[in-house]
Amino acid sequence: MSDVFVIGAGCSVPYGFPTGAELMQNLKRFNYGRKFPRDTHDTCDIFLVDLYQDFFGYSSSDNKIKYQNDYAKVLPYPEHEKMYNQLMDEIVLPFSQSVRNSMMVSTDEFLKNRLGQKQNEQVDFGKRLIAYEILKAEHKSLIEPLSDINSSKTSKDKWLGNIDWIQHLLSQIDQQSNWEEILKETVFLTFNYDRVLEYCIFLYLTSDKQYADAVAHAFIKGMQIHHVNGFIGPLDKIPFGAVENGKYQEIAEGMETVWEKRQNRDESEKEKYQGFLKNAQRVYFMGFSYIPGNLESIGIPRDAKIIQNAKVYATAMGLSPQNRLRISSYLDLKDFEKRNEPEPMPEIVVQRTGLMSDAMYRWEYENQEKLAKERAKTRQRYLENRILKDASAVDLILDYYTLP
Fold first, then answer.
1. Which whole number is the average pLDDT over 54-70?
2. Which residues of 137-176 are buried (b: 16+ CB within 10 A; e: fewer)?
3. Any idea where the domains of the chain sit in the sequence?
4. Crossing angle (nearest 10°) for helices 165-174 and 196-203
5. What is the mean pLDDT of residues 4-9?
6. Is 372 left (phi over 0), alpha (psi -120 to 50) or beta?
7. Closest by Cα among 229, 197, 393, 375 to 313
8. Which of 190, 211, 191 is nearest to 201 (CA)?
């Protein structure tokens, strides 16, 4: 028996990463540049040279350092400019026009319509660009501490405030004598391409437990962290935030949209996830959007019988009541709406004596009403299957790790 965390994009938002919908908007607003000849004072990076180092044979970073903003000299040979313009004509400019006009909400949905067609090269480019955006977000989190990200008014008001859920989790696990066993046995099924979870665990192991880097990397590889749709790559191969790493082709090949998962479904992989879920003592859905295709990809069909013996906890921050009702139906939490409504208040009766003034009567009534509300709140707190409307209740989600 183990705990299973099903992790979505919302879990990375407090660390400065975009949600799926925000990532789509980022791609719509992205500066895709233009063909050569370019303005020598153009401040747009020639990001294509970095994304297609396998195509150009070198990184633009060397020449960018040397020539700074004189981008006409970054590609020193005429054949480089020809190759650059070829990429712009055949892939980049068609992609930029399509994504800006797209009616799709997420990048997965946008790329779905390019699978198995002549635009397959656009899918490859889209994945490289997604990896580029994620690595930039990783790099930003290195130079802008998480405490600074979380302390900004916009972030605090919109997301989790100063709650760092991974820090909270690791801090509580660290209080257990068998912390290594807990980390090794806990299963994380993440739909995120980023490595925020691995990086925080790496910092915990190297800073708090004083592991050598190589030992920490080996420990993480031995953990049950499964990127369902692929990810940027292990930290020891592609360092956290390494934007100019030159391995975008390799990264793109290791990333699959949920739609590609359906086309290339590996039943053994799905069965592995189902094994984790079937034997789970607790299942935590965190920062997850509950898209049926994503649930099915890890082996949770409608009615969710596979997790019927587990205690289920789930965040639903920002989701409408209709969506929360859909989630409760899919996961077979039939009394979800009742569990999230206030407990019915019992009738309050105050025996009034002849010596009791109106003020005394009102004070006694209000006191009994307060006690009744506390009792109702306590009863609700101990219900086992919960969908929480506010992700700030992360303490409640992780209560297992705080119990003696």
1. 69
2. bbbebeeeebeebbeeeebeeebbeebbbbebbbebbeee
3. 2-17+157-341+381-402, 20-143, 344-380
4. 40
5. 92
6. alpha
7. 393
8. 211
Q: What is the SS3 assignment for the chain?
A: CEEEEEECHHHCHHHCCCCHHHHHHHHHHCCCCCCCCCCCCCCCCCHHHHHCHHHHCCCCHHHHHHHCCCHHHCCCCHHHHHHHHHHHHHHHHHHHHHHHHCCCCCHHHHHHCCCCCCCHHHHHHHHHHHHHHHHHHHHHHHHCCHHHHHHCHHHHHHCCCCCCHHHHHHHHHHCCCCHHHHHHHCEEEECCCCCHHHHHHHHHHHHHCCCCHHHHHHHHHCCEEEECCCCCCCCCCCCCCCCCCCCHHHHHHCCCCHHHHHHCCCHHHHHHHHHHHHCEEEEEEECCCCCHHHHHHCCCCCCCHHHCCCEEEEECCCCCHHHHHHHHHHCCCCCHHHHHCCCCCCCCCCCCCCCCCHHHHHHHHHHHHHHHHHHHHHHHHCCCCEEECCHHHHHHHCHHHHCC
The predicted-structure confidence for 352-386, as pLDDT tens digits, reads as follows 777 788 888 888 888 888 888 777 665 554 444 44
Work out the mean pLDDT of the chain and round it to a whole number.
80
Q: Do 246 and 53 meet the contact criterion of CB atoms below 8 Å apart?
A: yes
Pairwise CA distance, residues 368 & 372, whole Å: 6
Instruction: From 213, 222, 209, select the one nearest 173 (Cα to Cα).
Output: 209
CB count within 10 Å of CB 369 equals 14
User: Is residue 46 within 8 Å of residue 75, measured between CB atoms?
Assistant: yes
pLDDT at 150: 44
Q: Which fold has domain 2-17+157-341+381-402?
A: Rossmann fold (3.40.50)
* Total residues belonging to the chain: 404
Which two three-digit tokens encode residue 204? 């915990």
Burial classification of residue 41, based on how many CB atoms lie within 10 Å of its CB (0-12 exposed, 13-18 middle, 19 or more buried): exposed
How far apart are alpha carbons 232 and 43 in whole angstroms?
27
Q: How far is CA 186 from CA 6, 42, 96, 314, in A?
A: 11, 49, 41, 17
pLDDT in tens, 119-156: 688 999 999 999 999 999 998 888 665 544 444 433 33
Tokens at residue 274, please? 């189902």
